[in-house]
């Protein structure tokens, strides 16, 4: 993050906006297009996201580690909010969620890091995320005393995986093919 302040020179701000526009807008436009939006809607959403980004960067410049990821994420969230407001009754099977990912995670890399948490954690996380079991079902199946215990154990399992990733100083891109 280059840090933005209210006293920054207009030329420096303009350079930053041009760089962000060139880097992030194509990703946002592609996403909005896949979700049934127009080019003009993509421009509107991107401009709104750029304003949110700028306001956040002025207030807390040190909190933004990745300008482009923050900007793209904000734009996607704004688009989804707009999409839900205007398309109330669109069935989920018409939305191509799979293709909204620009890259696919490497299954083998993800699996290796999940395995570091242990067999029981793998089964718990699989039950929750893949099999979509409720926390009540997980508590029953894994012998926890209740929903709270299942929630705590799920959190601990995720923390084991996060710690392994942190120890190896891995980034999001390390999991992409």
Task: Tell me about this structure.
With 177 residues, the protein is mainly α. It folds into two domains: 10-100, no CATH class; 107-175, Arc Repressor Mutant, subunit A (Orthogonal Bundle), CATH 1.10.10. 66% of the residues lie in helices and 0% in strands. The chain has seven helices and no strands. Helix 5 (119-130) crosses helix 7 and helix 6 (135-142) crosses helix 7 (147-167). The two termini are 26 Å apart. Residues 97-104 and 172-177 have low confidence and may be disordered.
Features:
single chain; 177 residues; mainly alpha; Arc Repressor Mutant, subunit A; 2 domains; 7 helices
Brief sketch in words of this structure:
This protein is an all-alpha fold.
- Radius of gyration computed on alpha carbons: 20 Å
Biggest sheet character:
none
DSSP strand count: 0
Distance between the termini: 26 Å
In helices, the fraction of residues equals 55-70%
Order of helical and strand elements: HHHHHHH
Stretches where pLDDT falls below 50 for ≥5 residues? 97-104, 172-177
Tally of alpha and pi helices: 7
**Whole-number count of domains:** 2
Whole-number mean pLDDT: 75
- 3D shape: elongated
Strand content: under 5%
**What class would the helix/strand composition place it in?**
mainly alpha
